[in-house]
Amino acid sequence: MLTNSTTLTWDANTDPDLAGYEVVWRETTSPDWTNAIPVGNVTTVTLPLAPKDNFQFGVRAVDRDGHDSPVAFPTTKFN
Question: In the chain, fewer beta carbons within 10 Å around the N or the C end?
Fold first, then answer.
């Protein structure tokens, strides 16, 4: 059964000063990431968003000082 959620997974960052991750997303027509949500120090998250063909997702690591890594593309599963 298709629901309105999306599960994202990614490989863990091994940097010792990792604080956690942020999931970012944007409409497929937008050149910039327009939304971000902190998800903690996890490697899987399910969001109540149904992107189908409308959104593109990314994930970035955040260190203890608040610095972001470049955005990477997670594995996406639509539920």
Answer: N
Run of H or E residues at 58: strand 55-63
- Give the CB-side neighbour count of residue 52, counting CA atoms within 13 A: 4
Please report the pLDDT score of residue 6 as a whole number: 84
- What are the tokens at 75? 């594995």
The H or E element that residue 24 is part of is strand 18-27
Say what the pTM is: 0.85
Token code pair at residue 3: 């629901």
Mean of pLDDT over the chain: 88
Degrees to nearest 5, angle at CA 29 with 55 and 12 = 45
Residues 41 and 58: their CA atoms lie apart, in Å, by 15
